[in-house]
Amino acid sequence: MREPDRIIRMKTVLVRTELSRSTIYRKIAEGTFPA
Q1: How far apart are CA 6 and CA 23, in angstroms?
Q2: Please, which residues have CB within 8 angstroms of residue 34's CB and are 6 or more apart in sequence?
Q3: Among 3, 18, 22, 33, which residue's Cβ finds the most Cβ atoms within 10 Å?
Q4: Are 17 and 24 a contacting pair, CB within 8 Å?
Q5: What predicted TM-score, i.e. pTM, was given to this entire model?
């Protein structure tokens, strides 16, 4: 059985991906980052 999707805080995403906040938001807008 698959684990349910979880919401991760932006601070955690920044640490885990090592991307900047603006890069993450740009990728979300492009559809290349899960949101």
Answers
A1: 21
A2: none
A3: 33
A4: yes
A5: 0.74
